[in-house]
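To the team - 2-acetamido-2-deoxy-beta-D-glucopyranose complex, inputs and output below.
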Amino acid sequence: MAAGNGPWMALALLTLLAGLQTPALSEVSVQPNFKQDQFLGRWFTKGLASNATWFQEKKAKLSMCKSVVTAAEDGALNLTVTYFRDTQCITWSLLLEPTGTPGHYRYNKPKWGGNHELLVRETDYDQYAMFITRSTNGPDEGLFMAMLYTRSQDPVAKKELNEKFRSFAHSQGFTDEDIVFLHKIGKCIDDQ
Ligand SMILES: *[C@@H]1O[C@H](CO)[C@@H](O)[C@H](O)[C@H]1NC(C)=O
Ligand SMILES: *[C@@H]1O[C@H](CO)[C@@H](O)[C@H](O)[C@H]1NC(C)=O
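Output:
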């Protein structure tokens, strides 16, 4: 390579990389002033939205999950999800690693692999949280989901929260067919 091309190549590459990476960080906002410690504790998956084909096929059968968020090392969060499937309780955990922007995390899925991001878009900490997840590579690449977590299995303000989530999902480009509100089964997610 001729002397003098190097810096241009490097610059072009940097610009290209910056161009590829900025959307991931800046195009989506997070809950301003996100307080990670207030996000800890138990949540229930009340609503989901996705346009993935498998989701469209399975959504009628999905039931509410319990998620427990605890603080892990180095600013990470441990998210442990429990739900009832067929005849048994299924539990798995993943580690949400901080990206430097509060409310924005990266994680790898156990078993399936691939890189994912989670952004907490809006939360009041004691009733609900709405966030999005997306896969940046791996088997789920391009998968984009919106979720509604609630502190209670059967929130008093259920109607308002559902409507809030519906308009949030619409704002993310999802249609009514992409949205599902999950029912509680009780099994596996009720604490003793
Ligand atoms: C889901 O929506 C995204 C963004 O609008 C689109 O690129 C993708 O093709 C859609 N997937 C399906 C299965 O419709
Ligand atoms: C997360 O917490 C669960 C439940 O306490 C535990 O079994 C799991 O090992 C933890 N995972 C990590 C990565 O810390």
